[in-house]
């Protein structure tokens, strides 16, 4: 790999942007493709599939043997609310190779004893996210039922293009949430990206079942996301 490509790849990593290093196995020059680059033909299809799966592989394109070395930012789930669902979701998400952060200003809930080994922030989300901003390789899960805690991170998640935004609550609760977010200036297209009721519709009832439904929906959103437009990483 030549030095300019290596420097650019390292910059993509720093900014949490996805990239694929395309190597010509016959000895031709390497090429770096960043998620959102405009491509056409069979290479575009192979690259889109690789970005979605996150898997590196060898492919044959127009008689060329290429190796697609995929570099994705580690996907992270940011959970707003240190509730029972969050306890189960954090453990399951770690098994599925997601980094997890729990944020909740309610110190009675956000305790190390309840979230042993989990990245836990006992602070208001608006303050916590100033230090650790959201990006397009993060999923936002809001489960407190408290607008004072949930609404602002939902707004930030939609405006920073998080690949998944989900919010717990009944249809009535969500209708009220939608009205508040409209008043905050969000568009209909942005609001349509909120998964609510949260999780796949599997009839989940217990905290563990709801966590399963949420994680499955997050995985589906990650693997099925739009990779055709540029994604802004961390500055």
Helicity range of the residues? 25-40%
Overall pLDDT: 93
Reported by name, the CATH topology of the largest domain is Rossmann fold
The CATH architecture of the largest domain: 3-Layer(aba) Sandwich
Q: Name the overall outline.
A: elongated
- Find the count of extended strands (DSSP E, 2+ residues): 10
> Whole-number radius of gyration?
19 Å
- Helices and strands, in N-to-C order? HEEHEEEHEEHEHEHHEH
Question: What is the overall number of helices?
Answer: 8
CATH class of the largest domain: Alpha Beta
| The CATH H-level homologous superfamily of the largest domain | NAD(P)-binding Rossmann-like Domain
The profile of the biggest β sheet is:
6 strands, parallel
Classify the secondary structure makeup into a structural class.
Answer: alpha/beta
Strand line-up in the sheet with most strands: 7-6-5-8-9-10
SS strand fraction: 15-25%
Give the uncertain stretches in residue-range form: none
Organism: Rhizobium lusitanum
Domain XdhC Rossmann: 77-218
InterPro entries: MoCofactor_Util/Proc (IPR052698), XdhC_Rossmann_dom (IPR027051)
Protein name: XdhC family protein
């Amino acid at each position: 790999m030549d030095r300019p490509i290596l420097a650019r790849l390292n910059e993509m990593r720093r900014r949490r942007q996805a990239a694929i290093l395309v190597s010509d196995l016959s000895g031709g020059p390497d090429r770096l493709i960043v998620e959102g680059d405009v491509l056409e033909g069979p290479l575009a299809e192979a690259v889109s599939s690789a970005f979605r799966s996150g898997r590196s592989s060898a492919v044959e394109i127009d008689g060329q043997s290429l190796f697609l070395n995929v570099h994705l930012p580690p996907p992270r789930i940011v959970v707003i609310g240190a509730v029972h669902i969050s306890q189960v979701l954090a453990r399951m998400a770690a098994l599925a190779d997601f980094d997890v952060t729990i944020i909740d200003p309610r110190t009675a809930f956000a305790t190390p004893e309840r979230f042993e080994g989990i990245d836990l922030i006992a602070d208001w989300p608006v303050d916590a996210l100033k230090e650790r901003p959201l990006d397009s390789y993060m999923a936002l899960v809001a489960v407190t039922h408290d607008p004072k805690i949930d609404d602002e991170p939902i707004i930030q998640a939609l405006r920073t293009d998080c690949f998944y935004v989900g919010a717990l609550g009944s249809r009535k609760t969500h209708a009220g949430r939608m009205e508040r977010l409209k008043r905050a200036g969000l568009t209909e297209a942005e609001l349509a990206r909120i998964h609510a009721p949260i999780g796949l519709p599997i009839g989940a009832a217990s905290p563990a079942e709801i966590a399963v439904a949420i994680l499955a929906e997050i995985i589906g959103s990650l693997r099925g996301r739009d990779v055709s437009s540029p994604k802004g990483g961390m500055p």
